[in-house]
């Protein structure tokens, strides 16, 4: 009887710890809505998508010529226009709950969720 009760207590404690850890990790990831805009590996701007209340746009210019227009709305961001030849960055759509980075290779621009690497995004 003592052995069964001990196992029930251990399993219950482990389940409680796992549930608390899952709640913490999932809650932290949702609250972290910081997006980084990098060009040639340098941080240009950091945006907290959770704090955005109104839509706005701004332009990022590549020193070698060319530019990307970044559009920000509450909870999401995208490249709305670009003068690069293939415009793949524009067709990538919105970066919001899916943290796959938006990349413009000709202008060396990356828009990503803060703290995530390409391997993190690919693993999702």
Annotated CATH topology of the largest domain? mini-chromosome maintenance (MCM) complex, domain 2
Largest sheet: 4 strands, antiparallel
* N-to-C SSE string, H for helix and E for strand: HEEEEEHEEH
| CATH second-level architecture of the largest domain | Sandwich
Instruction: Please give the CATH class of the largest domain.
Output: Mainly Beta
Query: N- to C-terminal separation?
Result: 44 Å
Radius of gyration: 21 Å
CATH superfamily of the largest domain: N-utilization substance G protein NusG, insert domain
Mean pLDDT: 84
Output the number of helix runs: 3
Low-confidence stretches: 118-124
List the domain count as a whole number: 2
Give the percentage of residues in beta strands: 25-35%
Report the strand count: 7
Strands ordered across the widest β-sheet: 2-1-7-6
